[in-house]
Give the backbone structure.
Amino acid sequence: MNAGRRNNTVMPYFDFLLDRLEDFGEIAGCTEEEITAIESQFQLQLPEAYKDFLRLFGRESGHLLEPYAMTIDNLQAHKDEVTDMYEGTEPYDILNFSQKGFFFGHMDDMLLFFICNGDDDPAVYLMEAPEDINAYESSFTRFIELELQRDEEFPISHFLHSPVVFFAQDAPSIVTAGDFKDLAIRARVAFGICCLEYAISHFQLEELNWALILPLLWSYTADTVNTAIWGDQIAERMPSAILSDYPFDRKDIMWFELDTYEQLQQLYRQSNETVNELIYLVFRIGTQDLHTGVSRHSAQTLNYLQKIIRLMHENRLELPVITPFRQYPITEYNGWGRPFTREDLSNAGYKPANNLWSTTATAIAQQAILTQQVIRYNDFPAPPVFIAGADVEYDKYSDLIAGAIVVLERSTLQVVAYATHCMQVTFPYIPGLFSFREMPPLLAAWEKLSQKPDLIICDGHGIAHPRRFGLACHMGVTLNLPAIGCGKTRLCGHYAMPAGEKGASSPLLADGSDEVIGAVLRSQTRINPIFVSIGHKIDISTATSVVLDMCREFRLPETTRIADQYAREAMEAYKAAHDTGQSH
DNA sequence: GCGACAG
DNA sequence: ATCTTGTCGC
Ligand SMILES: [Mg+2]
């Protein structure tokens, strides 16, 4: 009767519900047209299991499922909520990748989503905040099945399969215009200029002649500034004015000559719209209250600040942290704030733009999602014979990074194969996000490797990691290869010192629980122990014995040592080849 | 609020 | 991780 009634469509995913549909009370399904409309509205391909769900419950989900707000009339609200969390970014862009996150319901304050990656019955995740994402159920059907079995209203206590923690510095800076409500105009201008600098760095426009405008902008925060003159000077240098069709006219321009005008033209032409718009917005903040004085919170400059923040978000740009600006309250100097310099900001924690830092939230989300794919038991057909080692080398004077993977025969330590790759770094070093820094050259080296190993020992932790997803896990899961994490120092967890003799070990325990996340292994007698943990497809005792087996004369396993050698060699070779090619 | 934080 | 010199203990 209902248009949502299924016709001949097979609905295999919720067979288990068909004989108890009356328990749900009032239910109604979606039509195929509605489902198609959702897909086009959200620009994604919905998984089959979810479509089946919609065919049954898409319009009315009955009292059992009602608290989850999973009917289609809620979808836009879910999306809006996520959008708010991310302040302007599209919710399905959160997880970066090519896949899109689809937010289909909620539990209390937490949003439920799956990733549209082509999987017919995808895993379900819970998002409490952008950087706090947990795997919840292994599939959508299982999610429905298990939720219906729960008696409790909202069984929050067992939401989390494993605790997800992250270092505070991993979290992206979240700043809203409202945060500047009580801060001086000088602080607002300075924040805008900092955003401008971040944008310049992000678009790799540092080489342009920013000296034409940046120092002048910064002069606003100095004690010598005359804001009226500053406004006049900046107005003449506005990108819109310089790039307009009107030719240079000495009568209109008081503050610079023709050659400066031409240089400015060149600058803004090579710049881009976003950066030029930021300059304009900074100008507006600086001049808005010029004649009226600063009233209360100066709502209009907050408005421009909001535009700046939105522009930054639209371009996926990290925002400067707000801490350094907090020291300039709106109560000082009639709202303008006391003067300061860029150095004052640096001393208070302002970090210059680093375009590599903009993706931390995405990286954390990936880890929370990928960690459930880690297999923590032995999963290999035969005892591993060809053991790979991996290490990465850096160069202090450039942004070069060289990765090496070496394959050794387990007992003889013969080098069976090796491969290296040198490239530019693509990610900064952030404890907890290490794999995003070292994986790219390692994966490139892996591609070149003529003989693939049975197992890989990585120079970094596996599950001995705040989100249980260190470098070794990332490598293992990515390559679908048994992997061991072997770190030199602790990242997280606590332990008792193992006995002094080679081979002694003690468990590495997770912070705040008794979960064993690794082994502290004495690899040489009375030498500092090393940290072994599961990477992928191997258990901790097997991992420990394999690592111990590879530790012959030194503290570190031969795999790591030899990989280190090859990586260093590759770096030197690359630099030498590059030098001769460049020096005229 | 402060310290801790793989390579 | 990087650079680089010196020192300690076997
Ligand atoms: Mg290393």
